[in-house]
Amino acid sequence: MSQNFVSLTLTPDQVTGARAGLDQMATALAGLVAIPDAERRNLMYMGPRSEVFVRQTLRVMAANPQIVPPSLDLAGASADLATLDQLRPLHEDLQKLVARLADTIDLLGSDAMDVALDGYAQLKLSGGDHGLDELRRQLGTRFKRGRREAAEPAPVPDMAPV
Known about the structure:
Elements: H1 12-28, H2 37-41, H3 48-63, H4 74-126, H5 133-140
Helix pairs in contact: 3-4
C-alpha cells in the first residue's frame, strides 16, 4: 500500500490569494534589502547576549546625552532597534510558514515518488505482457548508475623490524 502523508488540493483562487498576499507583503516591506554573501560574512552580528549589551548601552546614552558625541548616530541606532522589534515577529511567523510550506512540498513529492516506485515495480512485473518493455527501459534510466571505479587498496605498512 502506498503512503499518503499529505492530501492537499489548491484552487486557482487560493494560489492567486497567496500570491497576492506575498505581493502585498513585498510592497508593504519595500525597504527590505538583500546583501551579497561576501558582505554578509563581514557583518558584525548582534546575537542574544550582544542584544542585551546594545539595548543597555543605547539606554545609558539616551539617559546621558552629554557623553554622546555628535558623530554617534544614537537616534539612528534607536530607530534601527525599533524597526528590528517590528520585523522580528514577522520574520518568525514567516519562518514557521516557510517551514510548513517546505515540509508539505517534501511530503507531496514523497507521496508521488512512492506511488511512482510502486507503479514502476508493477511495470517491471507485468509490463512485458502489455508491450511496455521499451517504456520500462526508458523509465529505468533513472536508476542507472555510472560505473564505479574500484578504490585503490590502502598501502600495507611495512612490518619489518627496524
